[in-house]
Amino acid sequence: PRRTAMDQNAVVPVDQLWQRVRREAETALAGDPLFGRSLSSAILDHSGLGDAVAHQIGERLGRNTDDRERFARIAREAYQASPGLVDAAGADLQSIVIHDPAATRLLPPLLNFKGYVALQAWRVSNWLWRHDRTDLALLLQSLSSDSLQVSIHPSASIGTRVFLDHATGIIVGAFAVVGDDVTIMQNVTIGRKQELPNRAPRIGRGVLLSTGASILGDISVGDFARIGAGALVEHDVPGGCTAVGVPARLVNCAEAGLS
User: Fold this and answer.
1) Is 80 exceeded by the pLDDT of residue 168?
2) Which of 7, 34, 140, 144 has the fewest CB atoms within 10 Å of its CB?
3) What does the pLDDT read at residue 3?
């Protein structure tokens, strides 16, 4: 279907993005008052995207009212100290609408896509990690793993416009690097090998990691490469190539095999 939220090539500033979210919420409220009751606390009571995302983090990770308020407060603290986190949240939300054929509006992924919330929770945990609040950062990782089935170590590095599609069983280990515009499907593992505990995979820009793929060890996956479903990748994948199979081999690439 035709995109109604934005042009695929446009980067909408976060304030404009928030106004679009609010308009979608107001339309939903008018069309379905029963559903609309939840939109006040989730969207309409908030002053901006950061505040609404912080609320979602609290709701998803908290096990009781006190926890929900505490985790939302921690996220707001991070957003106030580092407004770039809110910009990243906006870019990630736009990426879902651009890349997911089933998502034509901003409101549904903001409210319902657990991969989106898990990624924003990771951004907060990474901020905590970088500010030497490691225990709290690891707590957020643990809660995200339990509640959302996405475990991203706070020490990982992840770019913007990243899409966790279906977002079940995703593991991104310590020190892993994931570039901009990457799509990660369900049951993907990006992790280190035991013999190289401090060397993790580096995933380039625009890469697709398909369902069940495992990318392990001190390796690089080049820009715009594609990793096939169920592939086991333990060697470098050049940019633009496709890796498939167990162990992975290259196809659609000039190289004869994995380097």
Assistant:
1) yes
2) 34
3) 41
Burial of 33 (0-12, 13-18, 19+ CB in 10 A): exposed
- pLDDT at residue 259 tops 60: no
| Pair of tokens at residue 258 | 């994995």
Do the strands 208-209 and 183-184 form a parallel or antiparallel pair, or are they unpaired?
A: parallel
The pLDDT tens digits for 99-146 are 888 878 999 999 999 999 999 999 999 999 999 999 999 999 999 999
Handedness of CA 196, 191, 214, 146 (dihedral sign): positive
Instruction: Determine the residue type at 207.
Output: V
What three-state secondary structure class fits 190?
strand
The answer to whether 212 touches 236, Cβ cutoff 8 Å, is no
Q: How far apart are CA 167 and CA 187, in angstroms?
A: 8
Q: H-type helices in 82-131, by residue range?
A: 84-99, 107-112, 114-130
Higher pLDDT, 9 or 75: 75
- Name the DSSP letter for residue 134: H
Residue 94: closest CA among 81, 105, 83: 105
